[in-house]
Every structure is written in structure tokens, then in C-alpha cells.
Fold each of these.
Amino acid sequence: MGRLEFDIAHLLAGSLVLISFMMLYQDRLYALLNTYALHAGVLALSVAWQAFVQQAPHLYITALIALGFKAIIIPLALHRIIVRLGIHREVETAVGFGLTMLTGIGLVALAMVLMLRITPGADPLAREDLAFSLSVVLLGLLVMVTRRNAVSQVVGFMSLENGLVLAATAAKGMPLVVEISIAFSVLIAFIVIGIFLFRIRERFDTVDLQALDRFRGERR
Amino acid sequence: MRLDALEAILLIPAAAAGVLAVFPSYKLTARLNVLAAFLTFATALSLFAVEPSSGQYLLLDDLNRVFIALTTLIGFTTSLFSASYIGHEIAIGRLTPILIRFYHAMYQVLMFAMNLALVANNIGLMWVAIELATLTTVLMVGMYRTHEALEAAWKYFILGSVGIALALFGTILVYMAARPVVGEGLDAMVWTVLITRASQFDPALLNVAFVFLLLGYGTKVGLAPLHAWLPDAHAEGPTPISAVLSGLLLNVALYALLRFKLLLAVNTGAIAPGPLMVIMGLISVIFAALMLYRRRDIKRMFAYSSIEHMGIIVFAFGMGGPLANFAGLLHMTMHSLTKSAIFFAVGHIAQVKGTQKLADLGGLTVSNPVLGWGLALGVVAIAGLPPLGIFMSEFLVVSSTFARAPWLAILLGIGILIALGGLFLRLNTVLFGDPRGPTAPTEASYVPMFVHLAIVLAAGIYLPPTFVSGFQNVANLLG
């Protein structure tokens, strides 16, 4: 692999981590969704680049899914849901932004140290991509735990999943990548958008999970 | 190819799911559901006559034969229970015919997904199957659409998805470890190939992979720090689903974990996976045992009891060695049978009394003797009293541990005793106190419950030698 190919792949994967960081401090749902769309767009580029470098045409399908489904359809659908639910106000965060960012930095450091240390033998691109993708996964988890709003939790989960797709495409020649990315898309589309948000809205008049907590059987 | 029966246990549920989604009459679909589950079970039994074999995607060996037989047996008995349970839910208007159609189709999809996870020879395929099983159960848990059901389903969905995501990361890492040795492509994800070459894999990568897999699939097993979804999902969904969740789905996730444990065991450079599993199992046992004391909802209570027992099983497999593995396998079988029998009883009780709250239940042995005594027998069994099967398996786990790590055995024993106290304290008034609530007779199907309990009782008194040698064989396989 030439120097340029490596640098471009590195740049794209690094951008994903950066955009994950941007998600941490978005305090409005619209802005969070737009950031997510950007995240998915960069993922699509990254996967397409891997498809080109590895000469693995089936990865273009994964890239197309990332671009069409994750970067365009899902954000648009979530936009509409947010408008319908009338919750385009501020995102509540459980922890302050400063602390969240510091935790995020710590998690990325952890991911880098862990993955770079255990994969000295692997080829450099796969190695760095694994480190980056673990960072994205951990940052996605952080988004999920710091938000209380159902929509932003889903966005956090989707960014986490982008990290997994990055890892799967970086693992050269991994079978079933396309199938797995389709399975994940089905998971997201089918459950989250189709059923849950509408039903939660239907029953609770809010998608704030704190409100759901009140209905816990044990706390009454 | 001699995988015909193996393919059949996948094809029958898949075809049944399609058929059940079409027919409108719930009486017909309930019967068809039972029929499909029975056919799957019969086919699964025929697998014992088939030689072990493996292909690129499917695998049959001594380990998964046991799991498949247990899964399909409980799938079949639960479908019997479900038929009478659903009839009552329709009668009181809690479920609509459309929802029943959906429910039956999902039930078969779940059976398909669990069987697929068990026979998958490809770690990617296994992951997809477990994800599918999670998805279908999420949908079924949220089926009543009450506040609590939706919250439970949401929580289950979020935590289950995170778990499944971590498991995928672990799976990718296993592939990364295998690629330099096995080469690129499908072979590097085929389990039978991995197990023969695992000794040459990079141990550091395998270690990290196992941690992710333990956290990921451990979430689905319901191990202690990751268990938060489990009580809600058990309490709020339809009771047949609680029975299947506790009796089967937790086992399937455990099976995935065991496969990867075997992979690590082959590699001498990798960490021993046992101690990690022992610690998580022990934490689960003690935590769940303590949590039993403050329950107010009967289904939630038995959900915590499931966490406790999964803890014991994971502990036993973590200890390893032929005896502990044997005990773990036996305990898993006994727990699945007993816990689903308990949920069969609880489901009918909740229907008769119209509540799941422990405070509103009382004197069941007087008001509904058959159900009450059935539940009492189930509770005695699950608490681990002799002469029932769980006593024997728990005794084996504790005694085999005693020889190797007395302190661990003492901690485990304390956990089991705390749980026993919690169960008896909470359920004493429910079973033997003053009768409370409506006492209308119910059209219950007692057969599945008593069949399960009879097997558990029989196993506690006498285990047939064929069973023993079969389990011993698998236990030796597990190393």
C-alpha cells in the first residue's frame, strides 16, 4: 500500500473520531442529527476508500448503505419525528460538557493504548483503524449514557455502530461485512423509527426517558 | 451432506413463521404453533442419531446437540402453555387477534433464530442469529403497550444493542487474530477451522476479543453488572416469553460464550477465561440473591432468581474441568426446565388473580390448589432443596469447587442460601397465607408445568446412565 492511500484512510478514520467528539457537545437535537449525518457521510467515504484500496467491490455496497441510509434517510426521518413530537428544543445532558469531553479524551487515549499495544504484528492500516474504531465505539457509548432523550440515545447508538462498520471494513477480507451492515440497518430502521418512538410518543407525550422512569413497577 | 435434519430445525420454524403470519384464526394458529414446535423438537431428537458434521455455515457436534434438544423441548412445551395463556388474553381483550398473529409469527422467528445461533459454525452468522433473537424478543416484550411494557422493551433494546455491538467488536477482533494464520476470507470465521488453528493466534488480540465477547454476550446472559434489562423484560412481557427468555435465550447467549471460551483454552499464551467467568458468576449470584428480598412483583422476583442461577452456571463453567462442567450443564438443564415451569404457573396465577403484585397474592394452595402446589413444588426445586434435580446440580457445583478453591465454594454457598431465604420469605404468604383476590377456576394447561417438574424430580432421584455419559462426554469437550 502506498503512502498516499494510507494517509487518506488515516485521515478519514481520524475524522470520524473528531466528529464523534463533536457529538458530545451538541446541545440541540437538530445540530446533533446534522453532526450524525456528517459522521455517516465520512464513514461512507472511508468505506469506499477501503473498497478501492483493498480492491473489494462488495464494500461499495456497505458504503452506499452508509451514504444513502445512514447519512440521508435516517437523519431526515428523525428530523420529521422530532418536528412531529415537538421536541426540537435543547438536549438534556446528564453530565456537564466539560466533564463529558474529558471523559471522551480519556476513552480515546484508552482505546489507542489498548489497540496499538496488542496489535504490533497487524498491518499498520488495520491497526490504526481498529484503534480509531474502538474510540468511536466508546464515544458512542458515552453519548448514550450522557443523554436522557430517546432520540439522542439512538443517535449515540448509530454512531457506535458506525465505529463497528469501520472496524469490520478495516479487517481486510472479512466475510459477511455487507450482511452485518444490512443487519444493523434493519435493526435501526425497523425498531427505532418504525415502532418505538411513535409508541412512546403515543403513550407518554414525551420521549424523555426520565419520564419513563416514573412508571417503573418497583418505584410506585 | 448429512445435514438434512440440521437444516430442518431451521426450515420448520422459518416456514411456520410465514404461515402463522397469514392465518387469522387464533385458535388455529395456536395449534399450528404447537405443531411446528413439536416437529422441530422431534427433528432435534433425531439429531442424536446423526453423525457430527460441519460445513462452512452449519455445525453439529456433541455440545450443540444438547443445547438444541433442550431449546426445542422447552420451545414445544411453552407453545402448549402459550396456547391456553393466549386464549385467556383474547377472552379478556388484552390482546387483539392481529397482535396474536404477530405474536405467533415472532415466536417461530425466535425459535428459528435460537436454533440458528446454536448450529452456526460461523461466528459472524452466530452473531447475526443472536441479534435476530434479541430483536424478536424486544418486540414481544413491548407487546402489551403499557407504560411499563414499553419502558421494559426500550431498556432491553438499548442495553441489548450495546451488548450485541460489543460482541460484534469482539468477533471482528477474533477474525483479526485468525487472519494471519488462517488467511483471508470465510475460513477465518468458521469455528471448526478456528479451533484447530487457535493455538497459533496472537494471544493479546484473543484476550481483548474475549473481554469484549464476555461483556457483549454476558449482557444477554444477564450477568450482574449488565443485567439491568432482564427483570423488566421478564416482568412486563407476555408470560410465555418470560419462560422462553429465562429458559432458553439466556442459555443461547451462554452457549456463544462457551464456544469462545474453548477457543481461548486452546491458545496457551492467552489468559485463562475461567477466572473472569467465575468472578462475574459469583457477583451475579450474590447480587441477585440479595435483590430477591425486596421484590414486590412475582415475575420480577423470578427474573432475579434467573440471574442468580445463570451466575451459578457461569461460575461452574468458569471453574472448568470435567466435574464442574458436568455440574454446569446439568444445572443449566434443570434450571431451564424448572424456571419455565414456574413461569407457566405464574402466568396462570396472574391471569386468575388479575395481578402480579406479591402483596395482592395470597393463599394460592387453598384458592387454586393445583396451580398453588405446582408453584410450591417449583419454588422448592428452584431454591435447591433435595430431592429435586437442582439440589443435585448445585451440590455438584459447590462440592467440586470445594476441592479446588474452598473460599469460592463458601461464597457461592452463602449466595445460594441467601437466595433460598429470600424465595421462602417472599413466597410463604403467597402460597400458604390467607387467600386473597378472585378465586375463579381457570382453564389452565397443567401438563407442561408438571411434565417439567416431573423431569426435574426424576433427575434428582435417578439420572439414566445414557444421560450421564452424554453429559460427561460434553463436559470433557468443554475442557
Amino acid sequence: MMTMPFVRRMPRVAGLALGATILLVASFIVQRADAAYVEPPVLAAAVAARELPPVDQRIPAEPLVMDMPSTGRQTGDYGGSLRIIEAQARDTRRMVVFGYARLVGYAPDGTIQPDIVKAVDVEEGRRFTFHLRKGHRWSDGAPFTSDDFRYYWEDVVNDKDLGMNGLPRELLVDGEPPQVSFPDALTVRYEWSKPNPYFLPALAQSLPLEIARPAHYLKQFHKRYADPAELKQRVADAGQRNWVALHYKLDQPYKNANIDLPSLQPWVLATPPPADRFIFRRNPYFHRVDTAGHQLPYIDEVAMSIAGTGLIPAKVGAGEADLQANYLTFGNYPFVKAAAEREGYDVRRWRSGKGSRIALYPNLTCADSAWRALLREADFRRALSLAINREDINLAVYYGLARPSNDTVLPGSVLFQPSLATRWATYDPERARALLDGLHLTQRNAEGIRLLPDGRPLTVVVETSGEEGEQQDVLQLVAEDWRRVGIGLVVKTGERDTLSRRLNTGSTVMSIWAGLENGLAHPNDSPAELAPTNSDQHQWPAWGLNAESGGKLGEAPDLPFAQKLLALNEAWRRTLDPAEKASIWRQMLEINAEALPRIGIIADVDQVIAVSKRLHNVPQTGVFNFNPGAYFGMYRPDTFFFAPPGARTAARDGEGALPQ
Amino acid sequence: MSEPLEHWVSTEPFDPGRTSARLSKPSTRYLEASQARLFWWRFKRHRLALVALVVLAIAYLTVIFAEFIAPYGVATRNTQHIFMPPQPIHLFHEGQFVGPFVYDMRGRLDLDTLQRHYTEDERRPRPLRFFCKGEPYRFWGLVEADLHLVCPPSLGTFFPLGTDRLGRDIASRLVHGARISLTVGLVGVAFSFALGLFFGGIAGYFGGATDYWIQRVTEILRSIPQLPLWLALSAALPVTLNPLLVYFGITIILALLDWPSLARAVRSKLFSLREEDFTAAAEMMGARPARIIARHLLPNFASHLIASASLSIPTMILAETALSFLGLGLRPPIVSWGVLLSEAQNIEAVALYPWLLMPMLPVMVTVLAFSFLGDGLRDAADPHG
């Protein structure tokens, strides 16, 4: 794909040759070491005025060379403004996902490869040595060195004021912090006594763990480095409580709202928020180049407009976006497609990486004791699932183009087995009735709704945070199906934040959400989603909180299947053997399919993507997923470029091929 | 020189009725007619109001017999006919008169554009059936029945206004929606009318401290912003309650906020009327205040009351439509015109499926009809008209 060999998934490799030191070096060849780079015209004036050094001095001595032809891409040229549309001003964060420059990042085949760093050495899955690129600079021109890593480690997370919340979860193995050392300006080492399989994925995430911070910029806000009087003045000017609050406010790389914060992303925020149109300019010091001597990104700027969610499809249909996927649903496809020819864009369908487009989450830890007792009965959840006519939903809402399935991994993942998708997910209302009768839910009210043991009608309140009509439509059809087996369903619509608050207090009985985040999982990806590990998990928020807080908050899981899942998740973390990892994954998927903590409804609903005909190098097909994937990020938007339509042949599928 | 003036004396016998003017037959009828009859005569002169009355009568008949008139149930889906445009009704098949019939619609999904294209299959006419047995329903939720005014052909479909995204008949949903949209508002109006008369009546009749405090309360009520209140209520009420009941409750709460304007009008009118001699006479004869207000004072400005009531009904209908459109009023699965419109609130409806905007038409027609009717009623009730 790129000129460097893949960095294998570290733990797998480590497992193959345990104890051996495996050096993973991106042994690229600087093909144009002596050739002059091409100055982007948009920066030529600044270079001429000596405000910027020339391009040769801005690019690291060892850049990441993207070989366009060999990855099925074309070599492009500089220029243009990429128009995208988002719904909220806080969506400036999307550019951190979209740009997807990470210390290490996921490639479309699911492997983790070096990106900002030149190479990572992984030993025994527990010792990680990062080698930085010589001459790499932040977007303001300051050198990017191990001092930036040191600043994060010593002056942020381990500072008694800034780091009062402790280390991030991914940096702790059984509660133990790593040994961090900085042998020279271009080398950083993280070392634990036991394997830490969560470390590199955390760095590669769409919402990354940032272990390098721009020390030269942040020091002016840090008590240890700044002049006390100046710092006091800065805190007062910013209207903050103290320097900790100020430092925290300014150093939020993911939020991407501080125009002065140096960055390593391909495009850097140039419009101070708040605004309804944001410009992101090219990072003159970006570390990726093509083989023809262009510094990436090809596109000079990204112009992000903010519009209401309901208006975004209309704006796309009016040709106001060059590349748009967010806020386009499958239902918008006919409209967007109808205007495509006139407005000069293509409509593509990328595969969704989610386990389910829509899944129901019975809350096994809800506060209402009668409901909790019932929801914890596997037979009740199975009955709910069997009563749903998924094929009818597929036909009515998704043109018959999606796949009725439970919430599990997708075909295409090595872990997929057809029975995982269909078990307890066929349409069998007779069996559902029998299961419900078997739970002694035989009393019914005048409307034919079964009664709970305490006499209340068995009417499930499904809470949704969606403005999306699609969820409402699906729920309406599910309500019809459930009614036939004597279960009522009413929908409660709320805000996303309200829903998560209600989940945390156990007020929610059932909620609706997308299914597994990583539907194309590989045995080396963490299976934590399948076990009660996180308070964001709608099916067992209190259990998840318990795991998150190390047993201090929430409730410990008291159902055998959940305890088993937790134990398996723990076993996965401890092993380096890929075969064992795969076997653990299979067991966990099996338990999930059998116990049905999430009731998946429909999967493989494609993401609709509008791509300007002038925009090249966007794959025809791909997987659209937040994590892993970073939406477009994994497909390297910095290699997209503008050229008249038809001037070059369209990009072939190349890197768009599905993983595995 | 003076001649006596020529004069003439009738030789006919004296007739006492001769002193008053001799009346034509119509004027006799006029003088002898009751108030109600006079009212009806004046109302008849207002042609638009008459038409409006007929339209509303039809509309409310539809409300009463919704299940009978609608060919399909409110949630009946037809997965084979999603987003189908209105199905034409024909009379002639190959030059021959067949009576009202439809052709089968053949749907095809274009996998490139994901649009469904429907064509009429003109081989076989499918006559519509009238007063026929069709989809079973519970009339008013009480009586099992299956008689319909018009049914789809036994093997075909009948979607005269097309279908929505789940393949539901728009025409049937409009008819069922009318039941909610046209009645829920009436309750609110009736409630606020009663409150307005009561508080306006006692304030106007008694005056003094009673009047003072009622005025202050109305001022406070008028200052409460209604939209945020509505928002809060729709969020606070539990969803397990019947959504229709919730909406009813909200309407009544809105009615509680709505009566002050009517109360003010009543009060100011009573101020002048209570000084009239007939009021004094009633008081002298020992009538209680309630009787005086209700029997002697209010009928004096019935024209105003009738007009204001008939004009506030369309306001309520529009309010229901607007609030449901915003997602604050009724919600699916309850069907009202506002709900239908809110479901058509997207770019697809405008660009690809314009028949989804159909519910606008009945809303406009009813609101106009109520306005014309109110106009006619006011003109008719005004003795100087």
C-alpha cells in the first residue's frame, strides 16, 4: 500500500516470537532525497516574503512518502478548497478525525502502521519504542521532538494539578503505570511489566490518546515554566479560574477550537470559533509527501459550513458540498442521486462498519425492580427478538438492500459465522409467545397487552436520542410486531445528553442505538465492547461503570453470562497468542448471540456519500466507520485532489478494498 | 271671497285598524318571525358562509364516520406500494364505460437511483366497490364492523392520494387524522369559552374588588409565554400515558391560559348592561346574580360570543397543526393533519413525493370555512346588519 512494509499488529507478531525483539521499521526509501520539492503556490508569497521557510526546509528529512500509483491512486496537484457541511459549530473536531494524522494509525486492512512517528518497535507486547522523524515540525514551525512527549508525561498527566484525574485507562496495566524514558530527541519509550494491547489502538483511535503535546506553546500557560506575573495576567485575561483551567481549555486537540494550538494534522483551524463557516488551511509542515515531490495535502483548504441537519441533504442536492457523508441517510439517497448529474457529483455507497445499523438495548441494570427482573431473563430478550419481523423492516425502510441480523460482527470479519447473525433473530411469533407464556406473563389487559407481575401493562418505553426519522419508522414497525405477541411499545424522544444521564441513573428501560462499533473486528482488536466494561454501554450502564471505576461505583455484574464475558475480556488482554485471542473472541460472540444483551435489528445499511466529480482519489467503495476508520481519515483525505472531471480516470478501488 | 276649502269625508264605516300602516305579507312575516328565524334569514344572505357551513358539515360527518369512509385502516401498510403517487381513477376502459375503476399499479425499484417507479397495468380494469365489506375495524373502538363507503378492488389497491414511506394510504390517514384535528380543538375552545364567560361575567357584574383581582389574574395569565410552557409540558408528561390523553391535557392547560381575552370582552359589555333598567327590574324581582348574568345580560351580546367562538376554533386547529409539525403536539402513532405534515417535513417530500404535502389542503379548507362561517354568523347576529 505504501512504500513501507506493514507494521503488523504488534501483539500478534510478538506472540509468534515471544521474547524476541522485533524491530518494526518503516524502511521506506526516500526516493527523492536530493530532489527539490514543489512549493505549493498558495504558500509561495509567504516564502518569498520570508515569513515561511521554503518547502525543502519545512518537510521532515525523513517524510512519509505515499506512493500514489502503487496504492491505486493518482498523483495529484495542489489547489482548491474542499467544501464540507457539518451540523454544529463544535464539529470542528471532525477535522481531527478527517485529517487522521496519528502517531500510528489504522490502514484500511485493519493493521496499525506508523504515521507521525517513523517507526515503532514493540517488544513482548509491553515495551514500545517510538522513533520520530528528523526535522519534523509542528504547524507553527517549532520542532517536534521527544520533549513534547516528555511534557505530556511529566508536566501534564503526572503534574499534581493538571494530572489530578490520574492516568488515562489505556496507560495503566492492572493499575500499574508505565516506565517512560526519552533516550534522545528522536526516541521515546513506554514500558510496562505486562503486555498492554490497548496502547497502540488508543493512539490510533479516531478520538486519540495524545501522548505528545506542543511543549513550546503550552509552557507559557504552565506554572512550572511561565513567569508567575505573566501567567496570572493570562489567566485573568482569559477569564479562567486558575492556570489549570486555562491550560486545560487551551490544550484540547480533539476539540480543535483553539486557533493558536500547534497541530500535526494536514489541515489546521484558521477561523476562530464561534462561526458558521470554518476554514482549515494546509499545514505547511505536514510530514507526508508524494513521489512526485508534492507535499501533502494536495487540497489547500477545507471550508466547513454549519447547517441544520435537515438542511444538509438539500444543500448537498444543491451542489454545496464536495465530499459529504455525515447527515446523509439511506433515505436521502433518491433525492441526492436525482440531483447528482445536474450538480456534478457522484453518489457512492460505502459499507458501514457497524455491527448493526439499529439495535435495541434492554437495560439490565435499570432501577425499576420489576422491569429489571424481567429484562434479565434471557428468554424475555429472546422473545422480544423473535417477535420482530426483520425482513419486513428491511423491505419497508431499507428497500430490501440491508441485511436482517442480530448485533454481531459482519460478514467479512474472520470471526463471522452465519449462525451468530441469525440465532434468536428469525421471525417466529409463535415461539415468542410460548417463551413469554413460559415466563408466566399470561395475564392480559383489555387491550391485549400482557401484564407485569405487579399488574402494570408490559409496555416497553424505548428511548431514542435520534432526530432521525429512520429510528422512529423502525420502532413503529417493531411496535406492530410486538403488539401481536402482547407487548406494548412507546417511544420517548430526547436529547442525546438527556439519554446518557437517564441511563446513568437507571431510569431507562430500553434504548435504541447503533450496534457494535467495530463490526469488522479482528481477533487482535479489543473485544471490550462485548463485555460490561464501559458506562456508555446502554445495555448495562451500572455494570460498565463498575468496571470503569475499578469496582468503586455502580454494581458488579451478577448474571453468570456477564461475569463470564468480563473474565474472557480479561483473558484476552493477558494473552499474546493470536489463536487464543481468536478463540476468546469466538466465545464472547457466542455468549452474546445466545444471551442477547443487545437485540440487533438490521445490519449492512450502506453509508451514502456524495463526491464531487472534480474530486479524485476518493475510493469507489470503502468502509465508513468512526473507529477504527475515522470516517474518511483511513483513506487519507490529504491525497484527495481537485482536477476537472474526466481529465483523469477515476480512482480504482485500490485501497478501498474491504479489510480481510 | 274665501271659498270653503274643498274637503272630502269618507262615508265608509270607521275601521280602528286603519290608523296603523297596512302591511304587506312579507313585512308581517318579518315582524312576527322569531329571533332564530331572523338570524337564519340574515345568515342565508351570506353565500360564502352557507358554503362554509356545508363544507364543515361534511367534514364533521367524516369525523363521525371516519372508519366507514376511509378505505384502509390508519396504520395499514402495503410494502409493495411504498411512495406510490396518487392512483388515477378511470371511467372508460378501451372506449367502453365501465364505471369508476382503477388499474393495478406495477412497482419497480430502480437500483441505481433507489426510486420506485409505478406504472398502470392497463390490461385489466379493476372496478371499485361501494358499500362493501373491506378491512375490518372497530367503529369508534367499540363495535366490530367491516362496511366501507368504498373499498379497493378485491385483488387490487386503491390509493387515490398515493402512499407514504411505509406504504400507508394518504387518503385514509387524512380521514382518520380529521377525527383528531377537528375535535381536539373543540374541547379546548369549549373549555376556555366557559371560563371566559364565568370570570368575565362575575367581574363585570360585581365590579369592585372582584373585578380588580380577576383583572390582575388575567394580566398575569396573558404574560405567560405559551411555547416554552408547551415544550416543558410535552417533556414532563410520562410517555406511557395515552398520547391522545396527553394532548388533551395540554389543550386544556392551554385553554386555562386562553380565556382572559374573552373574559375582558364580557366584562366590559356587562359594565354597561348592568346599568340598564331591565337589570334593575330583575334585581328588584329578587333574581340571583347567576340568573341575571346568564338569562338577562349575556344573551344581549350573543352575536359577539358566537363569532368569537367560531373564529377561535380554526386557531386551535392551526395550533394543533403547528405544534405537531414542530414535534411538540401529537406524535405518531396518533395521526392528525399536523403529524402528517411533520412527516412530510423533508426535502424528499418536496422534490420527489409532493403528494405527501396533501394534508395542507384540508387544513386550509377547514380554516377558511370556519372563518367564513364566523363572518356569516357575526353578520347574522348583528341586529343592525
